Amino acid sequence: MNIQWYPGHMTKARRMMQENIKLIDLIIELVDARAPLSSRNPDIDELGKGKARLILLNKADLASEKASAAWEEWFCAQGYFVVRLDSRSKSGMKSIQHVIREACKEKIERDRKRGILNRPVRAMVVGIPNVGKSTFINSFAGKACTKTGNRPGVTKGAQWIRLNKQVELLDTPGILWPKFDDQKVGVRLALLGSVNDEILQIEELCGELGAFLVTHFPDCLEERYQTTFSKEDKPHEILEKIAVSRSCLSKGNELDYKKAATFFLDDFRSGRLGKITLEFPPKGEYDKSIS
After folding, report:
1. Which DSSP category does 120 fall into?
2. How far apart are CA 5 and CA 7, in angstroms?
3. pLDDT digit string, tens, across residues 242-257
């Protein structure tokens, strides 16, 4: 399965980020806690050289808590400030203001020595499509500042938002990068909803998800669909069991695999399958990933 999605507006958005990077002190990068490495745009490291960095493991409520703890430790070891977060319920939000001040401590101290007091930290909020940037900003601000939507591409342009006297945020559109060199990354992003569903082969995509889950999270599958699964099950056999469990039938009483795949994908994305992480930190207990 070859997944690529890079519409023209993303080139424009990347250019805009390059132009504004000199105006900011901190980059706040949201990643999806279910696939923290795959949901990072590699261009951000190049754009953000020399800037303080804060990574928010968003949608942590949908991810394995053990895996998220391992990812937090891994990112901290790379020199990032990290907060686990669920923007929708505001879980983890209280600590962010303090972490922002900590991340920008050197800049704040330089300002103080130059006699500049109470200048707000200016932060750029970045991330791939559908990772929850707008929801985070609205939750952080305590009011609706930006449009939100459970689909990629809701934020179209940049906008400055003054949260309080201490922090100003620059919201940016979600951008991917021109080519996924590793197609496993494309598969994970497609599962997370960061790629336009209209270009996907849903049955094939869900076959990949099923093969991963029977290996790493079999209990989630069996509890949700009240069916026994095996590591020997082929992707189409996993979908067949889900179709039977959910009575997905087409005309003529034939099993409807596409309908079953749609149910399966929605169950994963909504968290009804349980707390699932699609990839794990390199070189450690969790050195395994979706394939």
Report:
1. P
2. 6
3. 999 999 998 888 999 9
